[in-house]
Amino acid sequence: MLIQTHGAQSVWVSFQADDGGAQTTPTTDASVRAQTLPVLGLQPSTHYSLQALASDGDGGLASSPVMDFTTDVLPSTLSNYAFEAATTGTILPGYVMVSKLLAGGNVNQDAVIVDRSGQVVWYRSGGLLDGDFQKQPDGSYTLSSGAVSQVPFAYASVYRQFDSLGDVTRSWTVPNGGANLHELLLQPNGDALTFTVTTRTYDMSAYDGGSATASLTGNILVRVMPDGGTDFASDFFDDFDPTDIVAAVNHAGAAVDAIHANSIFVASDGNYLESARHLSQVRKIDAQTGAVIWKLGGLRSDFTFSNDPLGGFSMQHFAREVAPDDILLFDDGDEHTPAQSRAVEYKLHFDSNGAPTDAELVWSYTPPPDASGNPIYGLAMGSAQRLPDGHTLIDYGTFTRVDEVDAQGNLVWQLTDPNPGLGIYRAFFIDSLY
């Protein structure tokens, strides 16, 4: 909405649908006399009235005439993004970013944001294989778009960075190898953390059908500078043995997907957490040297698991620190018996010398079985996000559903998909589209 003011200190827009309550845009500095204020979060095919309001800072208030308009329909390409939502408890107002992967080969994906009713209110076209779509600390959005490369299991991507209007502001990639679609995190100094791909030759002949010169695909955590160069790299293969690869991964053939790194996070001490699905392991990495500080899970874990009836997590996604030495992640559960998915939180303990001791399960949520009594199981993808009110938003990946549960494990909100496709890579709650 184009607004012109004189003598005002701040300006904003109030808008309301015929069947909804009044909402407002964030207040904006009115020192610029003529400016365009975006009005975001509107539902399609809906009649709205809106009005600009300005304050002089001393109690004076001015308003524009009320304008009426009706939003357009969603593009037909978004017919694959028709979700259903149900609220069964008290939830925060806001939105959920959904990175849904469609079934089929050369099918363009879209990045969408839905409101709490499940209606798409923000979208941008992606690529043939989208993955990570999230809101960065500076308020911008990043979306990976790419395809599986000729390098085995590479999932090469270019990340586009958008402003709140969906305009591309820049792109991110990694020199000599490309970024990986699983995650990119912008840093306060303008750098970006992401993964790239590497391969090494290992003798896998000890495994049935294994090759003596197998090409193992791994990952390197890199820090990309704004000019596109890198000033940090930590290679999983620098602390690795082929026996680290979990049994569920195919060890045979000329190529093996050995690491499959899928999430990055900056811990409270400034060091990095990285998740490796095919090791069933989360690692803490020294942000200066790239060395491994500790390993959680996997066949060479520095911690034992306590208070966990399943004895740890399996082939996980999306590890986040929710408090110092307190890790929340989505446990895909591929190697559990039976296979089942859950969200888990571990408190990490150390001895008086700072050496790792045990990882204590302090919270978990396992969804009830389906109507046939089968466990809920997403074999890949997924996420678990702790919300400001203590709730946890859980995306089950290839089991295309998103649950929000409170601290006591009560279901308070659920997003389902009548047309599930391959699944939802991740789901993020955000409180604002601005």
Describe what you observe in this structure.
With 434 residues, the protein is an all-beta fold. It has 2 domains: 2-70, Immunoglobulin-like (Sandwich), CATH 2.60.40.10; 76-430, TolB, C-terminal domain (Neuraminidase, 6 Propeller), CATH 2.120.10. It is built from no helices and 36 strands. It has strands at residues 2-4, 10-17, 23-24, 28-29, 34-36, 47-55, 61-63, 67-70, 84-87, 95-101, 110-115, 120-125, 129-135, 141-147, 156-162, 168-172, 179-180, 184-186, 192-202, 210-224, 230-235, 253-257, 261-266, 272-276, 281-285, 292-296, 304-306, 317-323, 326-331, 342-350, 356-365, 383-386, 392-395, 401-405, 411-416, 423-430. The strands form 8 sheets. Strands 2, 3, 4, 6, 7 and 8 form a 6-stranded antiparallel beta sheet that branches. Strands 9-35-34-33-32 form a 5-stranded antiparallel beta sheet, with no helix packed on it. The two termini are 15 Å apart. The model has no long low-confidence stretch (mean pLDDT 93).
Biggest sheet statistics: 6 strands, antiparallel
Shape: globular
Average residue-wise pLDDT: 93
Rg for CA atoms: 23 Å
> Can you identify the CATH superfamily of the largest domain?
TolB, C-terminal domain
Classify the fold: give the CATH topology of the largest domain. Neuraminidase
- Helical coverage, percent range: under 10%
